[in-house]
Specification:
By secondary structure, the protein is an alpha/beta fold. The protein has one domain: YbaK protein (Alpha-Beta Complex). Strands 3, 4, 5, 6, 7, 8, 9 and 10 form an eight-stranded mixed β-sheet that branches. It has a two-stranded parallel ribbon with strand order 1-2. The termini are far apart. The N terminus is likely disordered.
């Protein structure tokens, strides 16, 4: 299987990873890969290699305490709850979407539905198997970069912009990395939107 990471200028994973620019909107509707129960999640090393490709000096940090939830992460890191950039794997009409939102905010299904022109019942959180199959990571460790597949939409909660420094998951519920809001938008190629309550 070939892995893809959008927006990185060169390959850092050798034969394991093909790096490419984000797909145009017309190409974003792809068939989701079939989940293989033996499929292994990607690791913090994959995240770090992708981060290195951006040349921004971003570094994955391991925490002994869990960072599974936003509350857990804020406690372990020693920051405000709102500084946690939680990556939520969502299915919109069956299509994968990654929403990176502030840890102190709730996702607005109504705003997402309006953004994609679907009914609210078409907005669902992805299960753990889909998270690993599409995004590459289990819940609690989904990174905003270095995904197993490419071509899906990434949305960024505009309220994350109120912080000088934010913290995102890096592959496991014990690994995170610090960055700025601008850096998050740059490395993900995500669209900054109003998507929370």
């Amino acid at each position: 299987m070939t892995l893809s990471v959008p927006s990185v200028p060169h390959s850092t994973f050798g034969d394991q990873l093909t790096l490419q620019a984000p797909c145009p909107v017309a190409l974003r509707h792809q068939v989701m890969p079939r989940y293989d129960r033996c499929m292994s999640p990607l690791t913090p090393d994959h995240v770090q290699e992708a981060l290195d490709g951006y040349g921004l000096g971003l570094a994955v940090e391991h925490f002994n305490d869990t960072t599974f939830t936003s509350d857990d992460a804020a406690r372990a890191i020693g920051c405000e709850l709102g500084q946690i950039a939680k990556s939520m794997c969502v299915l919109v009409g069956g299509e994968p979407v990654l929403v990176v939102a502030s840890g102190d905010k709730l996702l607005s299904e109504a705003k997402l539905a309006a953004r994609f022109g679907v009914g609210r019942k078409k907005i669902k959180l992805a299960n753990a198997e889909t998270c690993v199959a599409v995004f590459g990571y289990p819940p609690g460790g989904v990174a905003p970069v270095a995904h197993r597949t490419a071509g899906f939409t990434i949305l960024i909660d505009e309220t994350l912009g109120r912080w000088d420094r934010i913290y995102a998951a890096a592959g496991t519920p014990h690994d995170n990395f610090a960055l700025t809001f601008h850096q998050l938008a740059t490395i993900t190629g995500g669209e900054v939107v109003d998507c929370v309550k």
